[in-house]
Amino acid sequence: MEAGTSSVVECEVRIDAAPETVFEFFTDPVKAVRWMGDDATLDPRPGGIYKVAMNEQYVAIGEYVEVDPPHHLSFTWGWKDDLERMPPGSSTVDITLEPDGDATVVRLVHSGIPTQEAADSHRGGWNRFLPRLAIVAAGGDPDKEENA
To answer: What is the DSSP secondary-structure string of 50-111?
Structure first.
């Protein structure tokens, strides 16, 4: 990849829950860890911290850029120990929640990823975690459903 270019990951999932319900899973630390990570520190306001520890090694750190409940939010993203040459806050995750009847379509765009390899890794992560979000936001237990 040429210097100065970056990769983008785009994902979409339909969730059987209202946008107001889904939005909380991106802003409430207790709800956030139900679908992604072991621990979270979230301050959902522009400039507020976004920190989710997937485990001891993988800790995503950034800050909220835009918070418009329950339709849109964005936050910066990077890794505590600069994994994949992505230091804290070096990329951006933009999330749009669109009502679809009694459900919500979540569109996630993760931009500013430095390499195609890192983009592929993040695509795999989002494709793992967004289905978990769909399960918990609809009232299910992703650990039971993943192992069924």
So the answer is: EEEESSSS-EEEEEEEEEETTTEEEEEE-BTT-GGG--TTSEEEEEEEEEETTEEEEEEEEE
